[in-house]
Amino acid sequence: xxxxxxxxxxxxxxxxxxxxxxxxxxxxxxxxxxxxxxxxxxxxxxxxxxxxxxxxxxxxxxxxxxxxxxxxxxxxxxxxxxxxxxxxxxxxxxxxxxxxxxxxxxxxxxxxxxxxxxxxxxxxxxxxxxxxxxxxxxxxxxxxxxxxxxxxxxxxxxxxxxxxxxxxxxxxxxxxxxxxxxxxxxxxxxxxxxxxxxxxxxxxxxxxxxxxxxxxxxxxxxxxxxxxxxxxxxxxxxxxxxxxxxxxxxxx
Length: 252
Ligand SMILES: Nc1ncnc2c1ncn2[C@@H]1O[C@H](COP(=O)(O)OP(=O)(O)OP(=O)(O)O)[C@@H](O)[C@H]1O
Ligand SMILES: [Mg+2]
Fold this sequence. Notes:
By secondary structure, this protein is α/β, with parallel strands linked by helices. It has a domain at 8-97 and 168-250: 3-Layer(aba) Sandwich (Rossmann fold). The chain is built from nine helices and eleven strands. It has helices at 51-58, 81-86, 104-117, 124-137, 153-164, 184-201, 212-218, 236-240, 243-250, and strands spanning 13-22, 25-31, 34-35, 40-44, 66-71, 74-75, 89-91, 172-176, 204-208, 221-226, 229-234. Strands 7-8-9-4-10-11 form a six-stranded mixed β-sheet, sandwiched between helices. Strands 1, 2, 3, 5 and 6 form a five-stranded antiparallel β-sheet that branches. Helix 6 links the parallel strand 8 (172-176) and strand 9. The longest helix has 18 residues, at 184-201. The radius of gyration is 18 Å and the shape is globular. The N and C termini lie far apart (46 Å). The structure holds adenosine-5'-triphosphate and magnesium ion (MG). The site of adenosine-5'-triphosphate has 11 residues, from strand 2 and helix 1. Residues 22, 25, 27, 45, 47-53 line the site of adenosine-5'-triphosphate.
């Protein structure tokens, strides 16, 4: 087991009062979210509760209107997406953002090439070995020369995951609905990949999903959002009996 990278005061990621508004709508409303190094956390909540917006804030795609985000103790909320990625934060998108006419392998190599352009001194052979190993892990190695646009939706998600894992050193992987509309076989591969990377490389995961049975197999703790706020947090057993959670899901 890899030693977990330093996290002052015991948190890998910590947000305080995180807030994002779209006009009059408060999509993320004073969110306090804290992840321990090496944990796999679920993030759930009804449609429109602010989960994707949270992931967009954490990955730097959106800038917060208030509050702060710390990664291993350091503020990252003023950084641009590539700077956050360079600090070891990867993400997937609900709708895959891939380069369709490039091959599967080229898509995986892309972040490493961009990092080299910015001065990363990793040897190309090491980068290629890592890319091949990750493609094997996500069962796409046989398709490495195929253009990304020929992949199915589920395979595109696998490719996004392999590409994210090229970020070195990787501390945190943010996944937005990785299981949505994905074939059960691929779902198993995604779960296996998450668990392996968590065990072997101590990668911390924040997984947004509506699939409770899948999340239950991956996460010990879940955070629940409703109307931009964190309304509950704990084990599945704890949140299942939580009145505010039932109300958020069943409506009233
Ligand atoms: N770019 C945007 N511009 C304006 N409003 C937005 C934008 N992105 C999100 N919103 C709004 O913010 C709220 C939170 O949206 P968000 O996508 O974060 O929810 P979600 O929890 O990911 O929902 P879902 O489960 O449906 O994916 C919604 O009311 C949504 O309409
Ligand atoms: Mg969403």
